[in-house]
Amino acid sequence: MKNVEKIVKAILEEVRRDGDKALLKFTRKFDGVSLTTKSLRIPEEVLEESLNRVSVEFKQAVLKVKKNIEVFQRKVLPRSWMMTRQGMTLGEKCTPMESAGLYIPGGKFPYPSTVLMTAVPAQVAGVKRIAMVTPPGNVIHDVLAAAVMCGIKEVYSVGGAQAIAALAYGTETIPMVDMIVGPGNMYVAMAKKLVFGDVGIDSIAGPSEVIIIADDSVRSEYVVSDLMAQAEHSSGAEALLLTRSKKLAKVVRHKIGRFPNIKIKVVNTMAEIIKLVNARAPEHVELLTRQARTLSKSITNAGAIFIGNYSPNAVGDYYAGPSHVLPTGGTARFSSGLSSADFMKRSSIIEYTQKALNKAAPDIIAIAEREGLKFHASSVIQRGRT
Questions:
Q1: pLDDT grade, residue 1 (50/70/90)?
Q2: Does 283 participate in catalysis according to the annotation?
Q3: Residues 6+ positions from 123 with CB-CB distance below 8 Å
Q4: Are 365 and 380 in contact (CB under 8 A)?
Q5: Residue 157 pLDDT grade (very low, low, confident, very high; cuts 50, 70, 90)
Q6: d(Cα 21, Cα 29) in Å, to the nearest integer?
Q7: With 0-12 CB in 10 A as exposed, 13-18 as middle and 19+ as buried, what is 165?
Q8: Residue among 154, 238, 283, 286 flagged as catalytic
Q9: 261 shares its domain with 198
Q10: Residue 231: per-residue pLDDT
Q11: Do the beta carbons of residue 368 and residue 377 sit within 8 Å?
Q12: Into how many domains does the chain fold?
């Protein structure tokens, strides 16, 4: 990882210094694509044309998913509030960020679903400017059509750490943003880590992962397909089955065969299984058991929890409404999946009457004087004299 950090630091510094020139250089070097400054941004007519190149079924599916995400994200959206009592008015003012950058990864598979899962929460929050970056090889009709259907008009053909640098610091063509979200490879993740503080980020995403808890009530085919679905993301993806059933473990192991990133473990008690899951804090947990909903109450560390035999991971990845951009690598111990709340800032509101300040004054003065901050105390004392 130290070598990755060194490489990414050099990329960030060069893009910060040389702007578009560096973007074009790194795009030639890493993507094998020669662009010009004018071709960094994808023209709106090209975006619109992508709608004509995708199937009606795809567009209908995108619209349904977009609606599902909007409904869910409105539920979790923080709202301003105020309360008044005894001369004090307190509250929070919730304000959307002005701008956000979406990183849509390329690589082995295209991810139009990630366009939806990042853009719609930002839109629900009320972000005015949303810019999307994606590697040149990922500039395909499905991805562009999803962007258009999400109302995104600002799309750039650039990927990797250089794209994160452009969003964080700005170039002649790509204006900087306030927040960068979306998954990517180790170089993208490292770039997000290094620019955090100059801009906000959602998380430092690693390889995708799932833990499936299953008992002998579930059909083995469900377990096998869900493990394989996770494993197909990449060679780094992790899929683990935890079960008390030796029979189920044997059947699943036989059907899967040799698959290096799928593990199967037989555990003696459900209490041990829960302990293992909460210690690992995985991105996804599937509960394929008789009492799945009851069991879910014991899961305290997970990005997303899928309850029952008919809630496969794919429902969350594509359709249900929560974003599929989730904490990985154990970070579910202290973080959550991307939501509309991540694009909001909260400002405290504090308003006191003179009577309320006079009542609080002795306590404020006592603490300020104890800390040696005499002008803090004086600012309260002066107002008590008017």
A1: low
A2: yes
A3: 70, 130, 150, 151
A4: yes
A5: very high
A6: 12
A7: buried
A8: 283
A9: no
A10: 86
A11: yes
A12: 3
Domain-embedded: residue 344: no
Residue with tokens 């349904």: 64
Please indicate, yes or no, whether residues 157 and 283 belong to a single structural domain of this protein: no
CA 14 vs. chain centroid, Å, equals 27
* Encoded tokens for 5: 């950090």
Is-catalytic flag, 284? yes
- Torsion sign, CA atoms 321, 325, 329, 335: negative
DSSP 33: -
Q: How far apart are CA 129 and CA 338, in angstroms?
A: 18
Instruction: Give the pLDDT score at 385.
Output: 65
Record the tokens describing residue 217, joined without a space. Answer: 């009530």
Catalytic residue among 233, 284, 286, 324, which?
284
> What are residue 264's DSSP bridge partners?
241
pLDDT at 386 over 60: no
Task: Assess if residue 340 is contained within a domain.
Answer: no
Given a cut of 70, is residue 175 above it in pLDDT?
A: yes
Q: What is the pTM of this model?
A: 0.93
Range of the domain at 86: 2-202
